[in-house]
From TrEMBL:
Keyword Lipid metabolism: no
Coiled coil: none
Gene Ontology biological process terms from the UniProt entry: acetyl-CoA biosynthetic process
Enzyme Commission number, as recorded: 6.2.1.1
Gene name, Swiss-Prot/TrEMBL: acsA_2
InterPro entries: AMP-bd_C, AMP-bd_C_sf, AMP-binding_CS, AMP-dep_synth/lig_dom, ANL_N_sf
Domain of life: Bacteria
Protein name: acetate--CoA ligase
GO cellular component, one term: cytosol
Keyword terms: Acetylation, ATP-binding, Ligase, Nucleotide-binding
AMP-binding enzyme C-terminal domain residues: 433-514
Occurrences of domain AMP-dependent synthetase/ligase (ranges): 53-370
GO molecular function: acetate-CoA ligase activity; ATP binding
Amino acid sequence: MRDEAGWFSGGQTNAAYNALDRHAHSPRRNQLALIAHAGDGQVHRLTYRELLDRVAVYLPSGLEAALTLLACARIGAIHAAIPAGLGGLALRERLLDTQARLLVAADRLYQSGRALPLAALVEAATEGLDLPVLWHSRGGERRPLELWELLERQRPDTPAEPVAAEHPLFILYTSGSTGKPKGVVHTHGGFMAGTTYHLRALYDLKDGETFWTTADLSWIVGHAYGLYAPLLEGLTTVLREDKLDYPDPGAFYETLEQHAVNVLLTSPTWLRSFRRHGPEWPARADLSSLRLVGSVGEYLAPEVWHWATEHLAWTVDNWWQTETGAPCLATPLCQPAKPGKVGFPLPGVRALILDAEGRVLPPGHKGRLALQPGFPSFMHTLWNNPAGYARAVQDGLYLTGDIAVADDEGYVALLGRGDDVIKAGEQRIGTAEIEGAMVSHPAVVEAAAIGLPDPERGEIIKVYVVPRTPDMDGEVQAVMAQKLVTHLRRRLGPLEVPVEVVFTPQLPRTKSGKIVRRVLRARETGADPGDLSTLEN
Ligand code: ATP
Ligand code: MG
């Protein structure tokens, strides 16, 4: 067994060449490649031909981020995207971990219409490092190294550098939901093959269509489906810097309408949020172009699936990770959906559910989800972390860290993270089981469940609930909490331990939108919450 995964070993290729040059010299040359909504209100539209003209230049964030990543790919440099707005220490840590030679940084970020200054943070993060910063200055200030100045001096016809198929394309850190983010390495050949296959086979994109991935470009979903796969396949991709619900939820629906988006790829977090805002928003919009919604990143509760399918378009839940680079489990369009169950291993993926000793479990038994590496988009390695890779890939199997169960027809349901499993007496309950049952109550927007040791009762389940009505008084809250406990027991059957419900206006999240249960646990037990560098709130 090799200690790294590979694809097209020995071949030569280049992802930027395939994303740009190939189309720019084809009948697609004048088709829109990319539509980027900057947070300052500017909308950039570039055709394949124009985009090629600019990729020899390094540029940041939004349009600039897309160009920078492609420009790196073009010359064979490995890009390491770090989401703008991440704290200075986290930035410095990643600069040190990647041993970056150049930092391309924006001096501000637009969030909810406000300009957040980043220059001081970047300067502090790079202090004492021998690391030039190429600035995307958005506030009119001039700095010694300016991206757009460089851009204007570039020759449009710089050829792409052929690289080995297994040459690293990028390092990208995981979301940090369960602990310190891992630097995942993907390569030109495998990443192209794996992501584009699913763009057609799972997300069902057709030539000439427009695809919108709401994920930030600096997370894996943004890398794979905001940038590379749609461009590799000659489609039009939409990018948006600001929040989807700024200044109000209408912004999301307007973007869908304005660009006649055909397929949307988003997250359960956003779908829950749009469900909370209500059906009057989609009812007001013209969504006639939208024919498919993909959901990835977290467990998609049946109620949320039904809402999205009814009010947006047919919704395909799909499971994957930064490490897998592209979808691994999903329900293809030719199969009936079972809301709450993600579906089947996709072509090329072999998935197993294992017990604690590594034995394969039959249908109906909860266990650790493992995959057989060897499908094209599987990570090449973990950057600077061979021990982490060896821990994850053992005896030819990759341990995903999630727990799952398959039914008799082969549909897999994701139950949550192995680290978050709740021990309730003899039972082992995944967080998704409790949270999904909670969200099926009409008073609940979203929920997070944790297990806690209890001095008197052994173990208790505590559920944090974001209620639809935020301002209930104490008495109403107590009644509602009791109702929700009853509802939960009715949905899940007998639970061997006490359940406590508490109300909260929001849940702790990563910047990529995932609920971070370890923060809730730490708050209860006083234990160390671990790495908080990617926390949003
Ligand atoms: P870290 O590995 O640093 O703790 P992370 O696992 O959240 O962070 P990502 O690679 O962004 O980092 O997310 C992958 C994880 O997201 C999966 O392991 C799984 O827990 C969750 N996930 C993704 N898609 C789905 C889905 N469709 N259903 C349930 N969970 C999902
Ligand atoms: Mg993970």
